[in-house]
Amino acid sequence: MLKIRYSVILLIVFITFLMSYLVTNYVQSDILELYGYPLIYILWIWIFAIQVVVFIPSFIFKTEHYYDLTGGITFISTIIIALFIKYSANSVDNISLLLSLMIIIWAIRLSLFLFYRVKKSGEDIRFKKIKVSFSWFLMTFMLQGMWVFTCLFPAIIVISSINSELNYFAFSGIFLWIFGFVFEIIADNQKSTFNKNNKGKFISSGLWSLTRHPNYFGEFVLWLGISVVSIGYLDSLEYIVFITPVFVYLLLTKVSGINLLEEIGNKRWGNNKDYKEYKKNTPLFFPKIF
Q: pTM (2 decimals)?
């Protein structure tokens, strides 16, 4: 299992750094620059610098309590920096403001939700073994940096463009984002409410009856929406932004999300007849329609 995860992580590392190389060297000519460097390159450095800074005390004190909060702060600060530089160039537009608002709202909601959940429970069971290993814990923070960069990639392309206007792709993407965001919020709230009164049991009602991981499905859809928004502002190699929904899907299903939760679920309820029936009749990720 560890070999499989290592190979997946290495593949993601390779794809992400290849993508960043292509973007910083072949972006279109009307992209914003800072000190002669494409804005996206500066933001890429900023994203990973934050991860390293927070990783050091986190490893020293063996705590994962600020991991998710760091992700949210990275998302928000990166978008604010991008907007500030665009404002300085006197080229702020409606689509850039809309994208920024969508991402900031999502980041605040999710990071605070996860932060308080970890504080309340005392620990995130996913990090129980990881946080005591320097290489694995560092890899987790680097993976978070790649997650932030890859998810923000389509939005940064739009914000970095000097001329951006609303179009049909933008409205379609915004609709997808709203659907995914609401789907994720409802799923999280349903599970939180269920766990308060059913400690030690698994949830199979509400959106959780349509898919075993509706919150992650909502996450995937909202980032797909961000990618769709960017379609009208892409040129040449910038269409590589569609690696974003692929990356999110692989990350959620193969690296740090669903696969770990499925293992935990099998350990807890693997011999439970109802749980076996639930797994048999409920899709892993994409919801059943009927």
A: 0.83
